[in-house]
């Protein structure tokens, strides 16, 4: 923005204990509250990355949020209610708020089913079948979808890049490294990451589109690795199923539990 400079003063650091990927070892990280200036790179852990969202990004936020509002617990904040479809008043924070309200009063499986219904509602009839014809589970299809992910989902997950991975012994550029997931950073919630993003996205590509996808979030630095062409593990065998809360930053956390309550059946 021209002629406007905002500087956020960080609050005193807090100590936060995180366990990434279900590992038993703990790493202690100092968390600072702050907003980083936009630079094209994610802010360090503990600072909130600043994004300059335009009309294109806000249109997608509004579309997703409105689809999800049908399943969300009504907001107590009347000022947050939107009017017509032409109103692109949803920003990323309000989009995340809708996600939190979708989680309320629903089990882990029910949350994932809502996301599946929302994704299907955004596609024309017969789209999954057409996708299967255009993109059979080949190396080319996996690499093509990885390349599309970087520009088209920047608004949702933040900066990312295509990386080379090995799938079934074959090296291919079908990996996407998300440097610091915007959704996880803004929600601060392990359950939202797993139930509202990772599992339903994996299932949607693998079961609806027929193109296997595995997503591996790193809860220590909030990065995430996506691998197109690689089948995801069963939930019970996935390290995320043993992930504890972000006890210091999640408003829905249960610090006394060794497992995020939103991951329980």
From TrEMBL:
It holds the Pfam family D27-like_C. The keyword Phosphoprotein does not apply. Coiled coil: none annotated. The keyword Isomerase applies. Keywords: Isomerase. Residues 155-237 form the Beta-carotene isomerase D27-like C-terminal domain. GO terms for molecular function: iron ion binding; isomerase activity. Residues 1-21 are annotated as: Disordered. PANTHER family: BETA-CAROTENE ISOMERASE D27 (PTHR33591), OS08G0114100 PROTEIN (PTHR33591:SF4). This is Beta-carotene isomerase D27, chloroplastic.
